[in-house]
Design goal:
Blueprint (H helix, E strand, L loop, with lengths): L14 H14 L3 H15 L4 H18 L3 H13 L9
Helix pairs in contact: 1-2, 1-3, 2-3
Length: 93
């Protein structure tokens, strides 16, 4: 369009950073976007701005989650299984 200013497109996040957030998301049993948000919030609190430090932070958060010993993905799956076995659970209205 002739008269409208061109807005820059958002940058594509670093592939390694996305992979680190994906591993964190898988372990926590959340979406990749939610994991990325967790990393972004913590990075802002710590003052990290570059991609390499955010990638390292995502890896550190994953290591902390593993060290805590709670596998949220398995816990969530077990909870869903318990709901499916409930005698009062209705499949249809």
């Amino acid at each position: 369009m002739e008269g409208s200013p061109q807005l820059p497109m958002a940058g594509i996040p670093d592939r390694n950073y996305n992979a680190a957030c994906g591993r964190l998301a898988s372990h926590l049993g959340i979406s990749q976007a939610a994991a990325r948000r967790k990393v972004e919030i913590r990075a802002a609190q710590e003052g990290s701005r570059d991609s390499a430090s955010r990638e390292a932070l995502a890896q550190r958060m994953l290591e902390e989650a593993i060290a805590a010993g709670t596998d949220h993905g398995t816990l969530f799956s077990d909870q869903l299984g318990a709901v499916g076995n409930d005698v009062n659970f209705m499949l249809e209205d």
